[in-house]
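We modelled the chain as a single entity of 168 amino acids. Its sequence is:
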Amino acid sequence: MKRAKTKVGDVFSIPINDEEKRYMQLIAFDLNQLNSDVVRIFEKKYFHGETPSIEDITKDDVHSYVHCATDFGIKLDLWSSFGNSNEIGDINQIIFRDSNDYSRKEGEEPVLISNDWNMWRIKDEKLTQVQKLEGENRKSYVGLVINPYGILEIAKGNEYPLNYPAFD
């Protein structure tokens, strides 16, 4: 296995199929989620032979913000290091959500629509409990720490995690 130590600003190339890749960037560590890495996965897809500049990559729209372990994805050969940029965007504007309705006992039906949410931003010291997602909270991202294979699914444009509650 490869040995990796990642740092804020690192940019990674993620192959999403036989022809295309997307890029993601480590932008912060979040104490509210096990001090996990927070990455932004960029919208634009590139062909494997293309080599965009770091500047072009980091100027792109964001597809998703996700918590993960970037070094583990490198060890599993799911993505590779591409470079580093100090341009990480405005991390204070990113909102994450989590719901206690996600967990359930074996045999229980999943909750499809939750009205029990915890909200936070990366540097918040505590979570804020809300019932319904209203206003800017409706633009929040799922705040679970996602395994590297789940990151690959998100980069491909697939829903992950499955069975995560929605909001009305």
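As a brief sanity check on the tokenised model: The mean pLDDT is 95. The longest helix spans residues 148-156.
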